[in-house]
Amino acid sequence: MKTLFRSLCVTAGAVALSAGTLASAYAVDLQFYFPVAVGGKAAETIQALTDEYSAQHKDVNIDAIFAGSYQDTVTKALTAARGGKPPQLSVILAVDMFTLIDEDVIVPFDDAATTDEDKAWLNSFYPAFMKNSQTGGKTYGIPFQRSTPVLYYNKEAFKEAGLDPEKGPATWEEMVEYGKKLVKKDANGNVTRWGVRIPSSGFPYWLFQGLAAANGKVLANADGNVTYFDDPAVVESLEYLVDLNKVHGIMAPGIIEWGATPKAFFEGQTAMMWTSTGNLTNVRTNAPFDFGVAMLPAKLSRGAPTGGGNFFIFKDSSDEQKRAALDFVKWITAPKQSAEWTIATGYVAPRAETWETEKMKAYTADFPPALVARDQLEYAVPELSTYQNQRVTKILNDALSAAITGEKDASTALKEAQAKADAILKEYR
Amino acid sequence: MKFKRTTAQMNWIYAWLLLSPALIMLFAFTHYPAIVTLISSFFSTPRGKRPAKFIGLENYQALLNDEVFWQVIWNNLLYALATIPISVAIALVMALWVNGKLRGLGFLRMAYFTPTVLPLIAVANIWLFFYTPGFGLIDQIRNGLFGLPDQNLLGQSDTVLWAVMAVAIWKEAGFFMIFYLAALQTIPPSLKEAADIEGASRWTFFRRIIFPLLMPTTLFVSVNAVINAFRLVDHIFVMTGGGPDNASTLLLFYIYEQAFKYWQTGYAATLTVVLLALLCVLAIGQFFFLDRKVHYR
After folding, report:
1. Which one of A72, A106, A266, A398 would you mutate to disrupt binding with B, by most B Cβ within 10 Å of its Cβ?
2. Would the pTM of this model clear 0.90, i.e. be above it?
3. A2-146+307-371: which CATH number, 3.30.420.10, 3.40.50.170, 3.30.450.40, 3.40.190.10?
4. B67-291, which class in CATH?
5. Where are the beta strands (DSSP E) in A18-123?
6. What is the pLDDT of residues A30-55, one digit of tens each?
């Protein structure tokens, strides 16, 4: 027993010693949390990119930690920050920016990005993505795994229904009209193929913004302290969503699962679906038929939210760490790396330069649907983001679910939601 | 005399030493957190620049005015009232069934026990597939055999809670069956023989002999079932996320959301105190009132 103990001590000492020398071999250590929200090669690609960076920069050691879903990642990062050991860098949902500011755990990129070159770099991202990344004149987030929803449609079903397979529905009215033609029923009168599928489980607010934006309304102000849930245009958007089932019968009733949506599309159970561009590679690989990708249909204009994650630098880091983190973010968002990332996942490359690279040109020439998301950015609105974001979003989600399941009518549900959101946000005005 | 006292002291120290590992664990991981939770429930939630401050009963007031909280309590009570008796009854029936002499008995017992060894997260994913509208198992049967339209049990407020209850019952019944089976095996066969000689019917034998003898097991199982009804929420995360519109949110899930999604830690502490109080009352009630009816051999 004694010898066992002694040998354990020796081993532990040796491990501690080697860890010590290992750590001191680098000038800067960075801990980097990243989430993975879609299937495919996201995690491997991030790992490969950080490894490549470390190989090129011998003085920096980046410890890339897969932290689960977006929700898990923000929970882990905040818990770590509260425990005094935050990561230096993390990818977190862009909309959690106000929460992170409120918790006082992040610093703006402007603090580290002081040279003219750095400032030019900050301005090189698509404005649509920066709307969720800046507040009070400062940039807190750098767009990385950003997406936007698009409409996927089954070209074969379109042909079968006598529709032009090269053209998705351009307006709300057209989507209903197409949907009615696309619905298929069996001998018993049961629907075997729905016209459209707009998933609503968990976070119905995200796609709902695609409707509200097309109807000319964003859901919150830029300061993140006022919401517009009961605006008539927003109510009208929700009524349209509810009526897709209730009046027009082109969408399945009740809450529709996100996870099962691509599968339902592959199985031919719906002819059109709304979902993230993050699914592009998945659909391309698995759809057993020709499919098309279109922008979300327009009401007053086109419109879509953005979504996905930004890089954030945490406050509790040394100046060297902040500079190293900035350097890494600059490197990974540079055209070459960014193109690799976009092609592997389907996320929208956040800078115009990336789309100009040979690699991206070859990719989009071979696969034009990848361009739809980029072109839609012109009409993109910032995603709903407020102080106490998760709570406020949850209030809207509950209201949308209540309307979709028919418990409340659209206007009552949204009025109640607005009152609850006001109660939370008034202390931030 | 002196010698005696030292022995007594030694015994005393020895006893505490033996107790200490368990006690330290209990205090560090159960009692201390419970007390800290109670204290935090009287404080506001600290945010980056604003530390927690004492606010007395404000959190409790907020709780009374929180309509979601009342919905959650109602959901959880309904959940408990449905899952506990049904899973215990099914467990008893299954145990009686596999206690007899049948062909393939081992296989049957194993089949009943399988849900218990599966992690709840895995179970939830399996059931998620069963329930999926359109191509899930239930709809394949409904459409294929009966020509019925698609269901969407998880996507409707009035069915979702029942759908998650079914999962809990399916998962729990096999576990409770094991306890009943063990208890049944200890009942001496002479009782059955005596009853047969007296000409008692099978039902009378069950009602007057087996069931009373199983009461200690029933007490144990029902205490467990009550705790599980408030403790097991993994399937809610996977299957519904508490939706739609909080229709399937249970108390513990709500606490998680408040604490780790919205960072309302003060309010979450208050909810935790409610959960602890509720469990204490239920456990004490069960032990004091049900215990009197239990016949221990």
Report:
1. A398
2. no
3. 3.40.190.10
4. mainly alpha
5. 28-34, 60-66, 89-93, 106-107
6. 999 998 876 557 788 888 999 999 88
